[in-house]
Amino acid sequence: MDEFLIRALAAGCGIALLAGPLGSFIVWRRMAYFGDTLSHSALLGVTLGFLLGVNPMIGVMVVCVALALALVALQRRRTLAADTLLGILSHGSLSLGLVALAFLETLRVDLMAYLFGDILSVTVNDLVWIYSGGAVALTGLALLWRRLLAVTVDEDLARVEGMPVDALRLAFMLLIAMVIAIAMKIVGILLITSLLIIPAASARRFTRTPEQMAALASVFGVAAVVAGLLASLAWDLPGGPSVVVAAASLFLAGSLLPMRG
C-alpha cells in the first residue's frame, strides 16, 4: 500500500475511534445543531490562525471555546430560544471567517480542503496531532463518563446531588471543540458533525448500554472510513464526502434490519 493511503487510513480510523463515544453523547443530549455551530466557526479559527501565525488547529480550538462560552452567556439571558441563538452564531461565525479570508492577500488558502477535507494529504505531523489530541480527549471523556451520563439522564437530579452541571457542560463543549480541530482535515469543516452523529445513530438501534453504543459507534465509524477511502480511490471521488456517504449508507442499511430484542 502507498504511504499516503496508510496515513489516510490511520488518520481516519483515529478520528472514528474518538468520534464514536463523543458522538454518542451528542446524540443522547440532542446537541447536533450545537456541533454544527462549532464546526462552522472552525473556518474563522483557521483564518485567525493564519493571520496570527499560529497553528490553525489552535485557532479553531480558541474560537470554538469562545463560541461555547458566548452561547452559555446568551442562554442565561433567556431573550432568545437556543435554536435561534445557534443559528445566529453558526452562520455569523462562518460568514465572518469568509470575510476574514479577504485579509489573507499574500497567503493562498485551499478553502475547499478545509470545507470538505483532504484526507489523502494527511502528513505524519497531522497524525501526531490526531493521536495526541485524541488521547487527551478520550482520557478526559473517560474521567467524566459517569458524571456526563448522570447529567444526560436527569440534569436536575444531578444538580441536586451536587454535581457541577455547568462545569460538566463546558468540559463537554471543550471536548467537541478539540475533536473538531483535529478532525477538520479528515472530513472538512462542513462535514465533521456528520462523522460524529451518523455512526452513533447507527449503533443506537443495536445496543443496550451506553458503553456498547460508544464502542459500536467507533466500529461503524472505522468501517465508514475504510469504505469511503476505497470508494475514493476506486472512482476518484473526494475523500471526506465519500467517508460521510459511506457512514450514511451504513445507517440506511442498518435501519432496514430488525432491532435487537
Automatic annotation (TrEMBL):
Record key words, sorted: Cell inner membrane, Cell membrane, Ion transport, Membrane, Transmembrane, Transmembrane helix, Transport, Zinc, Zinc transport
Example of a GO cellular component annotation carried by this entry: ATP-binding cassette (ABC) transporter complex
GO biological process annotation, one example: transmembrane transport
SUPFAM superfamilies: ABC transporter involved in vitamin B12 uptake, BtuC
Record field: transmembrane: 6-28, 48-74, 94-116, 128-148, 168-201, 213-235, 241-259
Compartment list: Cell inner membrane; Cell membrane
Membrane topology per record: Multi-pass membrane protein
InterPro entries: ABC_BtuC-like (IPR037294), ABC_TroCD (IPR001626)
Functional note: Involved in the high-affinity zinc uptake transport system.
Family: Belongs to the ABC-3 integral membrane protein family.
Protein's recorded name: High-affinity zinc uptake system membrane protein ZnuB
Lineage per the UniProt record: Bacteria, Pseudomonadati, Pseudomonadota, Alphaproteobacteria, Rhodospirillales
The encoding gene: znuB
